[in-house]
Here is the input.
Amino acid sequence: MTDIPSEADVVVCGGGPGGSTVATVLARRGLRVALFERERFPRFHIGESLLPFSLPILERIGVLEKLRAARPTVKPGARFYHQGTDHKRIVKFADGIAPGHPIAFQVKRADYDKLLLDHSRSCGTAVFEETEVKEVLFDAGGRAVGVRVRTKGGTATRDVAAKAVVDATGRDALLSKRVGGRHRDPLLDRCGVFAHWSAYESSVGPEGGDPGDIVIVTTAGGWWWMIPFSDGAVSVGIVMPSARFQSRGGTSLADLYDSLVEATPEVKGRLRAARRSTDVYAIGDYSYKTGTISGDGFVLVGDAACFLDPVFSTGVLLATTSGELAAETIAGCLARKGRVDRSDFRGYEETYRRGVRRYIHFVHGFYDPAFLQTFYTRCPIWAIERTIVSVLAGNVFRPGWNVRWWTLWLRFFVGVTRLVQRVKGPGEFARGTGLVEPAPEALAAASRTW
Here is the structure.
């Protein structure tokens, strides 16, 4: 532990996309940054589909060209299908109402996260892998003043003083208990089951799209993702109600997963020549937020602050956006007064939470038959169509008046569809398979809490 410093300007806990973004921005500003990551990269992770509005951040921190050089799969859009029906929607990011964001990338997170962390190291961040932050240290007034760390396999700890501490520990959320714990969304009580496959039938058929698109298959109880990689492999996962997962009895995780693949033609058909190349994994708590995400001398970013059901591939965007916003606040405050207070993070919190709230309306919608039918029905108003594309591309933090305005009109049409469904029934968009159908009022109330 002799190479671990006794102090730094900023300590970053966690080396995922949020942590590495914070560290890179601060290191490029000339600050002394120490980043502690519990694991050794590369390591397996999901959340492999990027969004177009992530790319400007990657360009600003100087890593975009390195990513392009790694030749990831180009993602021009997304293809949505509703299981067992002819309903589909092809999304092309180039058609968004906000110009200049035509593509994103599909990435294996093991490689991608290592690329970001190595880039941060090259920018001057002192990176310590296999070194866990055991606790954040606070003074008598409640200000974060450093961390206590321990290397893998070691017994001794070391204290590292800092002017600011960033919690980027992901779903482990190191500081969450101290700042009020997690608040789960009761309407999004879900879990995910997923694996990688060795090959993928990426043909797009007559409906259009691109082989690099993410494929989403909405079902009676949840949805599937299929994310193609440049080496021919594909990430395939299903999000389902937690009740469905818990009721599997003695069925193994792999058997449950394989049976669900078998029962979904839209997925099975694309895997006809494939075999599973990884174990089957599961993850729960699919949507939560942390009540307080900043304080005197500390801030939470990425999954440590909140996690959304990833139907729109929001994870990396939220991590890198929150990381950049937090870093800019920290850098400005340290330069101006040598410390950072909770009041300084007010703008960060407002911007971040506002973007999350815009997404949560759409996420709730994917479990609402009225929204789902509206989504799969082509709207005659071109501006609403282009607004949907821009939101799916990640344009939620500074969307402009036009996106906000046409999103309100989209909600109006969802309301009209809901009235029609009350008379005719939801038909093919009825939800089930263990999902408790929330009332529209409950959806609206839950959206407001975010």
Remarks:
- The CA atoms of residues 43 and 110 lie 5 Å apart.
- The two ends are 41 Å apart (CA to CA).
- The first strand starts at residue 7 and ends at 13.
- Residues 433-437 have pLDDT under 50 and may be disordered.
